[in-house]
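Exercise 7b. Backbone tokens:
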């Protein structure tokens, strides 16, 4: 995309001025349409060092109300960021519906930089590219406009700019060691940039290479591309997105109705085994931290199935400094205004830590599906998106354990009535619980489909038979221990 590229020439000055004026006015009008239509716009500014990305961004945002945009410059990764999945810090920055985010260099600069300095081998590089393509496609499938610019200048032009900036004491700070290294190894960098641009140039988020020799001309190219992209996105906002075929290996699981629920454990046996299993989990948690292995434990299940008590028996065995429980309720307004996975990407554990989710991202294909909080296209597309999300976590090295806590309808009714008749437990029962109970059959169909389509080899579902809560707690502990032993090479 860069080698031998015929760059469009700068138009005459009068034409340039007229087109710039028209494009600025067009963007100023579009910002209200973006707000009204709740269109989130993510603009990625990449390119050569000293190519003018920052100054161009500064000119562009002058046409937008400050309440509707944010400019993000990500510094070098912190130690904490290094202990999280590669994409997490970028997912955290995605805009709310109706707003812009301008990202001054992002996942391209990081990936290409690691590749150039030999810190990503071929296999790791391929995995990164797969992650990036999925990330960008998920954003556009969920209604985001992703516009990617690469600011291109020649080796000679870059050298000239570096020299000019270095000669002025007030601008020398703008040149860093990476800029100098790039110019010294311009040919090598161009090869890596070319390869990256070609392989991440997807129809839903194509690359736009900007001739950045002239700053005004660069600004015009960006403005005209942005405004055209915004118009198209506003016109296509209601279009359904094609569903992708699942490519991830699945594990067969029985339907909920086929699972017997008569398992029981006596109190004495329960206490003895609980103490033993919790002791083993305590030991494994220490090793998990030492070996820097992250774990994600996800709980879904019927209301009153015993998720809270089950989680409590897990956390009793863990060092409180090394885990966090995330109770997931209805999304807050700022969460609802972003991709539905955003609030989970931002709650992931560091390496060596455990995140326990009480309710999860599977709300998309259960409550949101059945209560009409998202479109049919949204929830049908979510199965693949969730498999992709969990694949990112697995590739990062996380142990993913997903529990469905199962009871029958009669047991739920008994527990609902007990809660309602016990003053100190009445807070646990709501009108919504009774309403959901009326949709038991529809929820059961949704859960069966969810398990069938998202029980992958790297993140399988486990059903906890919880008519006897004690049995379910011991089973959960055994599964967690087995999966952690496997991850730590101790099985």
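Sequence design result:
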């Amino acid at each position: 995309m860069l080698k031998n590229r015929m760059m469009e020439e700068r138009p005459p000055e009068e034409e340039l001025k007229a087109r710039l004026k028209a494009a600025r006015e067009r963007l100023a009008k579009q910002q209200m349409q973006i707000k009204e239509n709740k269109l989130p716009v993510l603009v990625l500014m990449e390119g050569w060092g000293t190519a003018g990305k920052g100054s161009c961004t500064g000119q562009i945002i002058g046409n937008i109300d400050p309440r509707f945009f944010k400019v993000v410059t990500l510094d070098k990764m912190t130690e904490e960021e290094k202990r999280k999945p590669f994409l997490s810090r970028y997912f955290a920055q995605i805009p709310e519906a109706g707003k812009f985010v301008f990202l001054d260099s992002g996942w391209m600069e990081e990936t290409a930089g690691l590749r150039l300095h030999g810190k990503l081998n071929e296999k790791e590089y391929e995995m990164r590219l797969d992650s990036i393509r999925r990330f960008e496609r998920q954003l556009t499938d969920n209604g985001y406009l992703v516009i990617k610019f690469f600011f291109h200048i020649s080796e000679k032009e870059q050298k000239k700019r570096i020299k000019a900036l270095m000669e002025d004491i007030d601008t020398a700070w703008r040149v860093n060691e990476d800029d100098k290294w790039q110019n010294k190894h311009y040919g090598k960098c161009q090869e890596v940039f070319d390869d990256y641009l070609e392989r991440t140039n997807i129809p839903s988020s194509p690359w736009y290479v900007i001739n950045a020799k002239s700053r005004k001309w660069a600004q015009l190219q960006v403005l005209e591309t942005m405004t055209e992209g915004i118009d198209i996105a506003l016109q296509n906002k209601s279009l359904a997105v094609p569903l992708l075929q699942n490519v991830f290996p699945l594990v067969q699981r029985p339907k909920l109705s086929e699972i017997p629920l008569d398992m029981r454990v006596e109190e004495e046996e329960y206490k003895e085994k609980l103490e033993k299993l919790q002791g083993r989990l305590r030991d494994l948690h220490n090793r998990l931290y030492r070996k820097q292995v992250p774990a994600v434990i996800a709980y879904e299940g019927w209301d009153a199935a015993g998720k809270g008590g089950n989680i409590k028996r897990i956390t009793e065995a863990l060092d409180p400094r090394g885990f966090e429980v995330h109770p997931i309720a209805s999304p807050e307004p700022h969460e609802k205004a972003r991709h539905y996975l955003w609030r989970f990407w931002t709650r992931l554990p560091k390496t060596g830590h455990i995140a326990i989710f009480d309710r999860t991202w599977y709300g998309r294909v259960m409550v949101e599906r059945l209560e009409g909080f998202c479109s049919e296209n949204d929830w049908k597309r979510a199965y693949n998106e969730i498999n992709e999300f969990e694949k990112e976590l697995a590739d990062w090295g996380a142990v993913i354990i997903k529990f469905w806590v199962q009871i029958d309808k009669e047991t739920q009714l008994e527990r609902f009535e007990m809660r309602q008749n016990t003053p100190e437990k009445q807070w646990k029962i709501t009108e919504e619980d009774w309403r959901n109970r009326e949709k038991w059959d529809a929820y059961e169909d949704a859960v069966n489909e969810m398990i069938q389509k998202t029980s992958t080899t790297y993140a399988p579902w486990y059903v906890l038979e919880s008519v006897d809560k004690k049995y379910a707690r011991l089973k959960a502990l055994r599964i967690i221990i087995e999966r952690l032993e496997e991850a730590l090479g101790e099985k």
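Instructor comment: The chain has a mean pLDDT of 95. The two ends are 49 Å apart (CA to CA).
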